[in-house]
Fold this protein.
Amino acid sequence: MSRKYYVCTGCALLCDDIEVETDNDVVTTVHAACRKGVARMKGCSNPMECTVGGEKADIDSAISMAATILRDAKNPLIFGHGNSSSEAQKKSIGLAKKIGAYIDDTSSFCQGPIIEAILQDKLKTCTLDDIRHKADVIIFWGADPSNSHPRHLSRYSYFPRGQERQRGWEEDRTAITIDIRRSETADICGDTRFYQIPMGGDAEFMEALVSALSNKVPKTSFDFDKKRILELGNVLKKAKFGVICVGLGLVYSLEQLEPLFTLMNKLNEVSSFHLMPMVGQYNMRGFNQNLFVETGYINRLKFNAETGETEHGNNYSVVEVLRDMSVDAALIIGSDPLSSLPLSIARYLAEIPLITIDPCNNLTATRSTVTIPCALGGVESGGTAVRMDGVEIELKKIIETNNPSDEEILTRITEAM
Amino acid sequence: MGFGQFLAAPEIKLKIVTYRDVFQNAAQESSRFGEEYEKLSAIIKLDPRDISRLSITENDTVIVKNSYGRVVVTAQRSGYEDAHPGIAYMVNSPWSNALVPDKTSGTGVPKFKDFEATAQSSKGGKVTGIREIF
Amino acid sequence: MEIYQFLPKTNCKECGKATCMAFAVDLLGRKAKVDDCPPLVNEAKYKANYEKLSEMITPVGDVTETGLIVHENKCIGCGNCVVACPVNVANDPFGAGSGKAPTSDKVIFMVENGIVKARNVQECRRFGENKILCVACIDTCPTKAIEFV
Ligand code: SF4
Ligand code: SF4
Ligand code: SF4
Ligand code: SF4
C-alpha cells in the first residue's frame, strides 16, 4: 500500500510522516501528528478577514492600501516570518530591500544567537537524523520538548531505534535534563538524570561542568552537589555521539554565548558533542538562512533603498527599533508580535499603521489597518521550509482555499509599490 | 465575607519564570480569542505557602503587576514536589508578556523567562481578557 | 460465557458477589481471582473446574493483566509510547520502532487526531504465556496518560 505523507508545520520539527483524511476541503482526521500539530493542521476556528481600516474589503484594495502605507512610511519594518514559507521570506527580503525597510524575525528574541553561531561555524551541529541513528548522550538544556516539540523524543532524540542505536533507549541512550524547573521532559529522563539549577545559574553550571571535564573540582556559588557534577562529567566524557538540545531557557539565561562555546570546545576535546537549536516556529531557521545567504546576517537589519547596503546589529533588533520608536509603519507576516513581544514594546507597535498577513485572526490583526488572510502553510499551500537542524523540507498542499499564499500576497504588494 | 474585604490584601514579591504548555499551544492554534486559550494562559502557578501568604484559595484571581504592566490571572498550585516560595510560574502568553521588562541591556533580547512582579488578591476581580491587555 | 460454565453456579455469595454470573464478569475483567471463590478452591468436586479456570485466567499478581487505559484528556500525542512499546518495535521496526508513523496494523499504539489509540492489546507483553511486567509505555509518557488497572 502506498501512503501519502504530508508535513506538519506545528513546529520546526516539520514531521513529514503525517497522513490526513479530508472531506470537502476540510481536514477531518490527522494521523501521527501530536496534539499541537493536529490543532494547526485542522486550522483555526477564527480565520482572519480581509479588512482595510476595520471594514471588510476585497483583496485588491487591501493590497493597494498596504502598498500605500509602506510607500508613505519613512522607516517601515517588516517583521515575523517564523510561520512563513521560504518563498514568502525571500519575497519579504526583496521587498525590504526595495523600500529600505528594517527587517527582522522572531529569532531576534529567540534562537537567533545560536543559529548565527551555527551558520558561522562557531558551534558544531548535526542533523536530527544523525541524532536518531547515532546519539547516545542527549542533554535537554533549558528545553522542554514534551511541551514545545512533542515528538522530538519519540522521533529522534530518545526512543527510536537507529542504525547505531539498535537496542532501545534503556540500554542505548542516556537522556539528561538541565533546567530550572522539573519539566515533563525532566520527569521522563528520571530523577538521577535531572539537574535542577537556580534561575540564571546556567553559565556557572557550564563552567563547573568544564572544571569536571578537566578533572578539577566543580564549584558553583549555589553549592550544587559536586559529586553529581562529576558524575555528569563522566557520562559526557564517555559519549560517542553527544548532543545538547538548546532551549529558550538557556538562550535567555546566557548574557553572551562564551560559556557555551567554552563548554562545547571542552566537550569536543574529551568526546564528541553537537548542538541542536530547539527552534520553535516552523520556518524561523529558514528565514535566518535565507537572509544569511542574501546579506551575511541572519536577522536585525535595515536596508538602504538606494544602495541596497545593509546596516546590522543589536540596535536593529525589532525590540530596540520599537523601543526607540524609529519605526513608523510595519508589515507583519507569519507572526503575532502583539502577543509575543513584551507589552511595553508591543504598545508602541499597536500605535503605528500595521499590515498583517496571516491565516488566522490574532492580536496584531485587531490593531492593524490592513489585514490580508493567506493560505495556511503546509495545509492550504505548499512551499519549502527549513527544519530546526537546517534540513530543507518540502511542504505539500492538502486542501484548496480561496486565500492566496503568503508568497503571492507579498509578490502583489511588491508589484503595487 | 468576614472582614477580609476591608483589610488591605497582602502583597507579595515574586520571581516569575515562564514555560511552555502543549495544551495551551494547541488552544492557541485553534483560536487566540477562545475561552480555552484564556483558561490555559491567564494563570499563575504558585507555591502553596505563597497562596496562604496572599490569603487566597486556589482558583481565586490575583493582580500581578510591575512597572511594565498589570494583569489579573487565576492562581493555581504549581503541583511541584519541591517547595518554591517566592517563585511563580506563568505559561508564555500575552498575559506573561504584559509583565516582561523592555530592558535588554543592549542584547536586543528581553528577559522573557525570568522577571519580577508583585501579586495581590484581586478580591474577586475578573481575569483580564486578551483584548483588554492593551 | 465460558468462564461461567466452570463456576459452581450456586450463587452462594461467599465470594462477596450476588451471583456466580457477577463473579464471572469480574473474573473476566481481572477484578477478581479464581481463588476468591471458596467452594471452587475447597470442594473436591470442583477440582477439575478450578484447574481449568486457573489455566484460562492467568492470575492477577504483581502483573496486572488487563485494563490498559489511555486518559485521552492527558495524552499529547507525543508518540513516546508508540515508539517505545516493544510490541510496536517488533511488529513495525522501520515505522514505529524507528520513530516514524506506524506502517503496520499490528501495532498496539497509534496516534490519531493527536491522541493515542490502543488496539491489539492482547499482544501486550503483560499478557500471554511469556508475560513480563513491561512498563515501557508508562515510563515514557510525559503526562502519565497511560495506566493499567
Ligand atoms: S512535533 Fe511539531 S511538527 Fe511534529 S507533529 Fe507535533 S507540532 Fe507537528
Ligand atoms: S462462591 Fe462461587 S458459587 Fe458462591 S457466589 Fe461466588 S462464584 Fe458463585
Ligand atoms: S506494557 Fe509494554 S507491551 Fe504492553 S502496551 Fe505498554 S509498552 Fe506495549
Ligand atoms: S506517551 Fe503518553 S502522551 Fe505520548 S502519545 Fe503515548 S499516551 Fe499520549
